[in-house]
Amino acid sequence: MKKQTVMVAALVGMMLAGSGVGKKVTVVPTPVITPQATVVVSAVKPEKPVQQQHGDGKAAARLAAAQEALAELTADFALVVPKAGKDGATFTAQGKMWVAAGRRYIVAYEQPEKQRLVSNGSKRWLYLEKINQVQIQSLPPAGNPNEFFLELGGGLPALIKQCDVQELPKDRKHPEWEGFVLIPKSGTSLGFSQVKMWLAGKQLLPRRVVVMSQRKVRVDFSNVKVHTLDELLREPEKGLDAGLFTFEIPQGAEVIEMF
Q1: Tens of pLDDT along 193-219?
Q2: 256: Cβ contacts below 8 Å, ≥ 6 apart
Q3: Model's pTM, two decimal places?
Q4: For an engineered disulfide with 118, which of 33, 242, 247, 256 has Cβ 3.0 to 4.6 Å away?
Q5: Element (H, E) at 124
């Protein structure tokens, strides 16, 4: 078996948990493609104590309604994890994502290494191009907090119910953004201490997400494009091709089934 490689892909809205090679799976709560195979984060502790707040029902309802109205989303993303390695170096990654209803998605990392995570709604494939290896995985249960941004109409609304939601002050550099913070309700363990997100437009599309867990993880989104449920009902031909969400195993690739 090839050297173990561990991956966790994010997207905030994206918050996708990956796994390790082989049958011994280590779930990594921080949404990062690890720059080194030996880096595994298992415990979740906030960098600073987080003050518990009472949730804003209106803010939570707005977030949930905006998510439920979406059917498809595509975006470019850039991920930053300060002090990610043993030497304290900042880890960065870039890529593109496609997300559709029915728990279907593609997270394609281009930098620092090419990796692709594809879900057809019932199972998913993790392809590590550098070592030509494919991991075939079962999907986690719906509403998994590590995947809430990859489940249109399901993941984020389910997570909101478990959190107190507050609006954030306006960002001076981006006054058009609307900011929200999600803090797990007292007695609830979700793998993070808080999530801050900045969204824009009537559809509240993601622009930036900051996750506070063992490490601080920031994901910035650009070129965000969406289709709403209403749009696809009127013009279904504009939707993403369903064939996008089926992964064809490359010739000669090592295949590991992780069910």
Answers
A1: 999 999 998 888 899 999 988 888 999
A2: 1, 21, 22, 133, 134, 135, 136
A3: 0.75
A4: 247
A5: strand 123-128
